[in-house]
Design goal:
The structure holds two protein chains of two kinds. By secondary structure, chain A is mostly helical. Chain A is built from five helices and no strands. Helices cover 66% and strands 5% of the residues of chain B. Chain B has helices at residues 5-11, 16-23, 27-34, 42-51, 56-59, 64-79; strands spanning 2-3, 60-61. The chains are: A mainly alpha, B mainly alpha. Chain A binds chain B through residues 1-5, 7, 10-12, 23, 87-90, 92, 145-147, and chain B through 9-10, 13-18, 24-29, 31-32, 35, 37-38, 40-41, 44.
Chain lengths: 147, 80
């Protein structure tokens, strides 16, 4: 048993939460999530490369659609597996971060849509990817609540 | 909700990590419960009681002000 009076202050792995979306690489579940995310991104990379190579053909560009769906779907499944391994407070932090990301993405999305209508501003269709860094910010904010 | 988790743990000379391991949660979870930042779910609260061989109400107590509010509200309801 450890001395109960010399407890180090409890902190969350903020860097890991912000950049990787998980609670550090100390657990096999986190390592698997990292591996599966890299695999998903590699799949997307291959799809993008293939699309680039086949661009001259009439349906070449369409390859990117299943490629994107498969890679994002794979990463979402990896997160689902990871969430199943978390304890209740960690899961709550993840849920609060998703709620934060959803709300802010909606806010930015509607603002950007309005801006494209009333001004000449062109917004790239991939703006939605901002949801992921926003989730990272949400994770840090939620974890700070439970220090 | 208030709790006696820190006292009960100290009585048994368990660290937060020891208790976390027994309960199958992270040390941060134990820390957040002890500091009153997080109220555990019912299954975890029962598991905590079981671990200390105590009833759930011997570990967790409602906040006094909440209790007072609940009593006041029930008294008002009776008067109506």
């Amino acid at each position: 048993m450890t001395d109960t009076h010399s407890e180090a202050p409890s902190t969350w792995p903020y860097w890991s939460l912000f950049f990787c979306g998980h609670f550090g690489r100390a657990t096999p579940a986190s390592r698997r999530l990292n591996r599966d995310t890299v695999l998903g991104l590699a799949l997307l990379g291959v799809a993008m490369l293939a699309t680039g190579l086949l661009e001259s053909t009439s349906y070449g560009k369409l390859l990117l659609i299943p490629g994107m769906a498969l890679s994002v779907g794979w990463i979402l499944l990896a997160y689902r597996r990871y969430f199943a391994q978390l304890d209740e407070l960690s899961l709550r932090i993840q849920h609060e971060a998703i709620a934060f990301s959803f709300a802010v993405t909606l806010l930015l999305g509607f603002t950007a849509s309005t801006a494209t209508v009333v001004t000449d501003l062109a917004v790239h269709p991939l703006w939605i990817a901002i949801a992921e860094p926003l989730r990272g910010i949400g994770l840090v904010l939620a974890a700070r609540k439970y220090r | 909700m208030t709790n006696r988790l820190r006292v009960l743990r100290a009585e048994r000379r368990w660290s937060q990590a020891d208790l976390a391991e027994r309960l199958g949660v992270s040390r941060q979870t134990i820390n957040a419960i002890e500091n009153g930042k997080y109220d555990p779910s019912l299954p975890l609260a029962f598991k905590i009681g079981e671990t200390f061989e105590l009833k759930i109400e011997e570990v967790f107590q409602p906040n006094e002000d909440l209790e007072t509010k609940a009593l006041a509200s029930s008294s008002r309801a009776k008067l109506r």
